[in-house]
Amino acid sequence: MSNLLHMENVRVHIKTRALDITALELDHLSLARGEMLALVGETGSGKSMTASSIMQLFPTQKARVTAGKIMFDGRDLLGCKQSELDRIRGEEITMIFQDPMSSLNPVFRIGDPIIDVIQMHTGVSKIEARDQAIRALRYVGLPDPGRLMQRFPHELSGGQRQRVMIAMAIVCEPRMLIADEPTTALDVTIQSQILFLIDKLKREKGTSVLFITHNLGIVSKMADRIAVLYGGRIVETGPTREVLKHPRHPYTRMLLEAIPRIKDKRDRLPVIGGRVSSPAEPIRGCRFANRCPRVSDLCQAEVPTLATASDEHEIACFHPVEEKR
């Protein structure tokens, strides 16, 4: 499959009066057409920052991409004019955010922002836009969508609000969808429905999905490939089955070992000792060195780069875990 998205040597800096922080350092990251790629890692690993760099919508005005290329269907998004970028966002690349309650404006009815998105990107009449919005809400499984469009966000459940966000994201049939922890704070049943819906988009419409999560159980069932991030860098990437079955980076192995299992006979779950280092801390070598059981002087002096471990499986580690087949 050819790549729809390719990021190369991307650097994101957050510059304040006191500090110049490197928040993201991606050597390379690709998303193929019709593929689902999962970004996993602890809080602060750079998952959402990766999504922000693609959309160029950062949580602070002090953050910006300072180097690299973000190629989308042959175009470098970093070189696009603002008008072109505005068109691409919402029409070709869309995003589902973590918290639908804060993403939906409480003073507008549910249907208003969906109609606005349709008219902005297609130029159709308000009547036609309303019909398209109803079809999108029906596609995501919401009953009586015509009536639902007249309701306010606070009148809907968390699962219904998330479905509205998905409808808004897919109404213009984008080629790429970024799902940033879309099942956060939802109960297990609703989580399952939302995940089924995202998978349905991939299967039926060929939408490429960048799925951001910390839940490796979800990843194992949905994603084609996985990229494990730590400290703003990719430490391991490859086909999901290969990475989860044969993890080579110590961090990936420790994440998997910490997952509770139904027939777990261990008295205590393993934990990753230490803490995630702040991006503001000056670290010369590997950012995982202060928590890694396989650390050496080399790890503290130099930064490991992604290297091929096996077919399509890459790791960034000087002392990878031995492969067990």
TrEMBL record:
BP GO annotations: peptide transport
Source lineage: Bacteria, Bacillati, Bacillota, Bacilli, Bacillales
One term under GO cellular component: plasma membrane
Membrane topology: Peripheral membrane protein
Any GO MF annotation of the entry: ATP binding
Family: Belongs to the ABC transporter superfamily.
Entry keyword set: ATP-binding, Cell inner membrane, Cell membrane, Membrane, Nucleotide-binding, Translocase, Transport
Spans through the membrane: none
Pfam families attached to this UniProt entry: ABC_tran, oligo_HPY
InterPro entries documented for this protein: AAA+_ATPase, ABC_Ni/Peptide_Import, ABC_transporter-like_ATP-bd, ABC_transporter-like_CS, Oligopep_ABC_C, P-loop_NTPase
NCBIfam families in alphabetical order: oligo_HPY
Subcellular location: Cell membrane
Protein name (database record): ABC transporter ATP-binding protein
Domain of life per record: Bacteria
Coiled coil segments of this chain: none
Main location: membrane
Domain ABC transporter: 5-256
